[in-house]
Amino acid sequence: MKRHWEIPFTKFHGLGNDFVVVRAEALPSSLVKLSRAICQRNTGVGADGLLVLAPARGKRINAELRFFNADGSEAEMSGNGIRCAAAYLVLKNLASSPIRIRTVAGVKTLRVIKKERGRWLFRVAMGLPILAPAKVPFKGAKGKKPVVGFPLRTEQGILPVTITSMGNPHCSILVRELSEFDWPKLGSEIEKMDLFPNRTNVEFVRVISKKEIEVRYWERGVGVTNSSGTGSCAATVAAILNRRTGRKVRVRTLAGILHVSWPANGEVTLTGPAEIIAEGTYYFMP
Q1: Alpha carbon of 181 to those of 178, 186, 206: distances in Å?
Q2: How many CB atoms lie within 10 A of CB 41?
Q3: How far apart are CA 266 and CA 96, in angstroms?
Q4: Euclidean distance between CA atoms 85 and 241, whole angstroms
Q5: Measured between alpha carbons, how far is 229 from 232 in angstroms, rounded to an integer?
Q6: According to the 3-state scheme, what is the secondary structure of 185-215?
Q7: How confident is the model over 187-208, as pLDDT tens digits?
Q8: How confident is residue 40, by pLDDT bands cut at 50, 70 and 90?
Q9: pLDDT score for 29
Q10: 117: which residues sit within 8 A by CB, 6+ positions away?
Q11: What is the DSSP letter of 258?
Q12: Which of 104, 145, 260, 278 is deepest in the core (most CB within 10 A)?
């Protein structure tokens, strides 16, 4: 008879991008199966992703964090997800500001900017954007960096794209109007292109002013999401590289506002909320 797992969970959302947070202790060995099951919206808890927190290895680190998409694939980084993980650590009195979390994309530092009941505003030091195509990885522009205005051939025509990484790969497309394209269909197509060995996240970016952009997100392994932290950072970096905005940008998403800053020769910072939704026990049969 298969073992029946009882897994305590806490669910958060980072501006409409929702995540289930669990502790790594006493989890089943197949985190791929767990993430697919627990993120299922009809038979599971329902979420865009699963966050697995483990005790820190090393000094001055509060926790280790792994990100799993709803399809079971593992992501290197999530800007909205890491805020939800930090909110969990603060909620459970496991850390206080500043909070340092190790991810596959490196150690990230978060600071609490504002705290309300069940809601926190964090500023995340996201690190330097990765612009070298081999490190994104992207196979379309050998050696050239940054990759700006690359003519990407799609079923909806040839589109100029900007390729970056925020620890995870991104393809950003600047558009005049978001209604120009069937962007969910286009995002699904681009995600799986051979030019992206690890697949890619896709952002559709409308520049409103030098200080504001509006973005729609197709997330690798998830699909359409209301917002994306790394996607907002990549979209801002793309707008700056294309000389369409200044270095401090207000990002308008379907779920609200994120703030992104990329000072010259500095790292990208992301400011946004994390809010608790629910707590409970998930019953998992592998």
Answers
A1: 7, 8, 12
A2: 11
A3: 25
A4: 30
A5: 5
A6: HHHHHHHCCCCCCCCCEEEEEEEEECCEEEE
A7: 999 999 999 999 999 999 999 9
A8: very high
A9: 83
A10: none
A11: E
A12: 260
Two tokens, residue 163? 């390729």
* Cis, peptide link before residue 137, omega less than 30° from 0: yes
Closest C-alpha among 12, 9, 57 to residue 34: 9
Residue showing tokens 């959302």 = 13
| 247-264 b/e (C-beta count within 10 Å ≥ 16 → b) | bebbbbbebeebbbbbee
What whole-number distance in Å separates Cα of residue 33 and Cα of residue 50?
Answer: 11
Question: Cα dihedral angle (66, 71, 75, 80), rounded to 10 degrees?
Answer: -80
Residue-level pLDDT at 58: 78
Confirm if 65 and 101 have CB atoms less than 8 A apart: yes
Q: Which two tokens stand for residue 205?
A: 């970016």
What domains sit in the chain, N to C, each tagged with a CATH number?
Answer: 5-127+273-284 (3.10.310.10), 133-266 (3.10.310.10)
Q: Answer yes or no: are the C-beta atoms of 160 and 151 closer than 8 Å.
A: yes
* pLDDT tens column, 210-257: 999 999 999 999 999 999 999 999 999 999 999 999 999 999 999 999
Residue 189 buriedness (CB in 10 A; 0-12 / 13-18 / 19+)? middle
pLDDT digits (tens, 9 = 90+) for 119-142: 999 999 999 999 999 999 999 988
CA 56 to CA 102: how far, in whole Å? 8
**The two three-digit tokens of residue 148, written as one number:** 């700006």
Pick the more confident residue, 253 or 28: 253
Secondary structure of the chain: what % helix, strand, coil (to 5)?
A: 15, 45, 35
